[in-house]
Specification:
241 residues; Rossmann fold; 22% strand; globular
Length: 241
């Protein structure tokens, strides 16, 4: 049994609850997806052939949003969950030239799963923080190998606060976001601190410092490495091959 299969994300009920409430749980989720679309439009729109790899694709929302704006993309979606891939297939059923691969990050790192190469853009969202720093570095190397020369990697994820004082504030920002979002949607009940406690106590959550991950990307050989957006622990970062 793989590490992914032992995690909560392999359980359909857990993953479906996350999908149902993702816009509440993830600070500025829609804004961050919009930034991914802006990134694609700025750096890749002029290319006649655009291959996309969506790692830890969930229900395929990022690929879907890109396809709506840039229909010529040929995407490959990867996830370790059958339930997530089923939802992605349902969301994207009106589009063509789409491939799906069921595999975990650990299998990609070990080389037992082939995800292809020559991609112009590799994206991931709220998934890589489940790896240790050494596993992240190994995955970054696999991503670098899979990119077309001049291609890009962009990651939406949570990162570790560099100090306890900042962590306290970032958790407060997160709590305020969830309260405000629920109020705007007319949703009553639920304690946002429960989500924060779950995030902090689940062993499968292994966030690392943003600085360490940017450094790992540079060591791997990525250039133009930077943080493109940040709101508390939620960030977008990446680089080019």
């Amino acid at each position: 049994m793989t590490e992914f299969e032992q995690s909560n994300w392999s359980k359909a009920e857990f993953s479906r609850d996350y999908l149902d409430k993702a816009d509440i749980y993830i600070v500025q989720r829609r804004r961050m997806i919009g930034i991914i679309k802006s990134f694609f439009g700025h750096f890749l729109r002029v290319q006649c052939s655009k291959r996309l790899l969506d790692l830890g694709c969930g229900d395929g929302i990022i690929t879907h949003e890109l396809l709506k704006s840039y229909g010529s993309i040929a995407p490959t979606l990867v996830d370790g969950s059958d339930d997530m891939l089923s939802k992605a297939k349902e969301r994207l059923k009106g589009f063509k030239q789409i491939s799906f691969i069921k595999t975990s990050f650990q299998e990609i790192i070990l080389g037992s799963a082939h995800i292809g190469d020559g991609y112009h853009l590799i994206v991931s969202s709220m998934a890589i923080h489940h790896l240790t720093l050494e596993e992240k570095k190994a995955l970054f190397r696999a991503i670098h190998r899979s990119l077309h020369q001049g291609g890009f990697f962009v990651n939406i994820d949570v990162v570790l606060a560099p100090t306890g004082q900042l962590d306290g504030w970032y958790m407060r920002l997160w709590e305020e976001w969830m309260d405000e979002k629920k109020a705007s949607l007319g949703i009553a009940g639920g304690d946002p601190t429960d989500i924060i406690k779950r995030y902090k106590t689940l062993e499968e959550n292994k966030p690392d410092l943003l600085e360490d991950q940017l450094g790992a990307l540079r060591e791997t050989g990525f250039r133009n490495v930077d943080c493109f957006y940040k709101y508390g622990i939620f960030s977008i970062f990446g680089g080019a091959k």
